[in-house]
Design goal:
Blueprint: E1 5-9, H1 14-23, E2 30-35, H2 43-56, E3 60-64, H3 71-79, E4 83-86, H4 95-98, H5 100-120, E5 125-131, H6 155-174, E6 178-183, E7 186-187, H7 196-205, E8 209-212, E9 219-220, E10 223-224, H8 225-235, E11 246-251, E12 257-258, H9 259-270, E13 275-278, H10 294-300, H11 308-322
Parallel strand pairs: 1-2, 1-4, 2-3, 4-5, 5-6, 6-11, 7-10, 8-13
Antiparallel strand pairs: 9-12
Bound molecules: nicotinamide-adenine-dinucleotide.
């Protein structure tokens, strides 16, 4: 990867922050990170991430801007990006049940603005975040990229599926090289406070009851953040060369674990037992995620380096350092 100028949207977010932190090490790259730093979760955590990135390097520039701002057009025109990695979105499956508008604004309108500018400015590779949620209730495992994704169980998943379909059409009509990445439950230090790992660890340390939906029988294909950023890094220089230059990959650990065992690992690392409130399945929840990554292996020789136990240890070390209990 030589002398590329890369735009990373959502760089104050969990995955965007880690990706920038990793890409910054390559001094041949010039990086621009954008984010509107919204208050969906703790703004302090987002600001902390940005400050770390700013201190790390001079080849990284952060701009606070919304995906839907008119200034996005000027930004593309001025900066002349080679690659766009679009991670900014309204994340969260459950929040989309009560707040669908946020998903229309950020995941549909915002996505359109970024892909449209990418296409107009002849970006050489447009990479964007999708999700394992697009597989809905598929029960044939491991999940492969070509399986049916026409029945999303939540509006969040519906907006991400729309992104995939829109990107395909841009690849077809405008020959925009586009790559969709379906992430499977990404976790790690500086992770999102709305996700299970933070909620569980926080409840344990504060002696509060934690909610265990579906009586803990869910299975999730937890994927450690470094494995995800490694994959994204390798994908950057590998756009599709097909006539319609569109491609789609699962990024998963292919090693699903049930929530009870996940919690046991957290308890072990924290050295403390959880108080658990067992609850039935929630509306829109999927029983299991388990992604097949043979397509990604073939493309970039993808390998998982961090086991769930190791990853949780790294997370808990960060969590305890950050929070005073
Ligand atoms: N973390 C996971 O397990 C996971 C799983 C599947 C898919 N994804 C997808 O990966 C991407 C990154 O996820 P994350 O976990 O880092 O989430 P995150 O919420 O930590 O990061 C998203 C960032 O986008 C920013 N953003 C949202 N709307 C914006 C707008 N209109 N303009 C500018 N910035 C805006 C937010 O402020 C946030 O900092 C998202 O697209 C998400 O849907 C994440």
């Amino acid at each position: 990867m030589k002398n590329k100028k890369i735009l990373i949207t959502g760089s104050a977010g969990f995955i965007g922050f880690h990706l920038c932190k990793d890409l910054i090490k390559n001094k041949n790259l010039s990086l621009v990170g954008i984010d509107n730093v919204n208050n969906y979760y703790d703004v302090k955590l987002k600001k902390e991430r940005i400050n770390i990135l700013k201190k790390l390097s001079t080849n990284f520039k952060f701009i606070k801007i919304d995906l839907n701002s008119r200034k996005i057009k000027e930004l593309f025109f001025k900066e002349k990006f080679d690659v766009v990695i679009h991670l900014a979105a309204q994340a969260g499956v459950r929040y989309s049940i009560s707040n669908p508008e946020a998903y229309v604004i950020n995941n549909l309108n915002g996505f359109f603005n970024i892909i449209n500018q990418s296409s107009r400015n002849k970006i050489k590779h447009f990479i964007f975040a999708s999700t394992s949620s697009v597989y809905g209730d598929n029960s044939k495992f491991p999940l492969k990229e070509h399986y049916d994704t026409d029945k999303p169980l939540t509006f969040y998943a519906a907006t991400k599926k729309s992104n995939e379909v829109i990107a395909y059409s841009y690849s077809n009509i405008h020959k925009l090289p586009a790559t969709g990445l379906r992430f499977f439950t990404v976790y790690g230090p500086y992770g999102r406070p709305d996700m299970a790992l933070y909620k569980f660890a926080n409840s344990i340390m504060k002696n509060k009851f934690l909610n265990m939906f579906n009586y803990g029988n869910h299975k999730r294909d937890f994927t450690y953040i470094d494995d995800v950023t490694n994959a994204i890094k390798k994908i950057i220089s590998k756009p599709s060369k097909d006539k319609i230059p569109y491609q789609l990959f699962n990024i998963a650990s292919s090693s699903p674990e049930n929530l009870k065992k996940f919690l046991r690992y957290i308890e072990n690392r924290l050295g403390k037992k959880a108080k658990i409130k067992y609850l039935p399945l929630q509306k829109g929840d999927i029983y299991q995620t388990f992604g097949d990554t043979s397509k990604l292996k073939k493309k970039i020789n993808f390998k998982i380096r961090t086991s769930l136990e190791e990853g949780i240890t790294k997370y808990v070390n960060w969590f305890l350092k950050k929070n005073k209990f």
